[in-house]
Design brief:
- The chain is built from five helices and two strands, in the order ααββααα.
- The chain has about 170 residues and is mainly alpha-helical.
- The chain has a domain of about 100 residues.
- A two-stranded antiparallel sheet has the order 1-2.
- The protein is elongated.
């Protein structure tokens, strides 16, 4: 293995002088840190719902004269799931040796796809959230899913594994 920055994890970055940001973001350890950070952000949004960033104070009067607080805000779409805790722990664990834990990237693809689908469902089907509440989680999840997808299916120069003959 050479001392070149692109080979620090044993996997050459994709591209031959393409977009520098995508090449940098596709490094396995950096991608795992971004995924862990995104999961931690979702946990913070689910925990601190009284913050204006996560929950806006929209009071609606119900039939009996009581007031109801509506869940809204730029990151309000994160507020209904706790999946971020075990997934962030898994991403951080896999950070130690990304080539050894390659399967975590398939899990990350499923995680980001499920998060994006849930945002669309709660906006389009159930109308639980407004567009302003799902746009940041949706865009972030879709962007991370695209990065993980590109990382998983880029060509690699890995040695072929030999199977013993029976």
């Amino acid at each position: 293995m050479s001392d070149a920055p692109g080979t620090a994890t044993g996997v050459e970055p994709a591209g031959d002088g393409g977009n520098a940001f995508i090449t940098l973001a596709q490094r396995p350890r950096l991608m795992l840190l971004i995924l862990a950070g995104w999961s931690v952000l979702s946990v913070l949004a689910e925990t601190f719902t009284s913050s204006g960033l996560f929950l806006e104070n929209h009071l609606a009067t119900l039939e009996k004269g009581t007031l109801e607080l509506e869940l809204d805000g730029a990151l309000g779409g994160f507020a209904l799931g706790w999946q971020g805790i075990p997934l962030a722990a898994l991403y951080i664990y896999a950070f130690r040796d990304p080539p050894k834990h390659r399967a975590v990237f398939f899990l990350a693809l499923i995680h980001m796809g499920a998060l994006a689908a849930s945002q669309l469902y709660h906006w389009l089907v159930t109308s639980d959230f407004t567009f302003e509440s799902i746009i940041v989680p949706l865009a972030g999840s879709a962007a991370l899913a695209a990065l993980v997808f590109l990382h998983l299916f880029q060509p690699r120069d890995e040695p072929a594994t030999q199977h013993p003959a029976n």
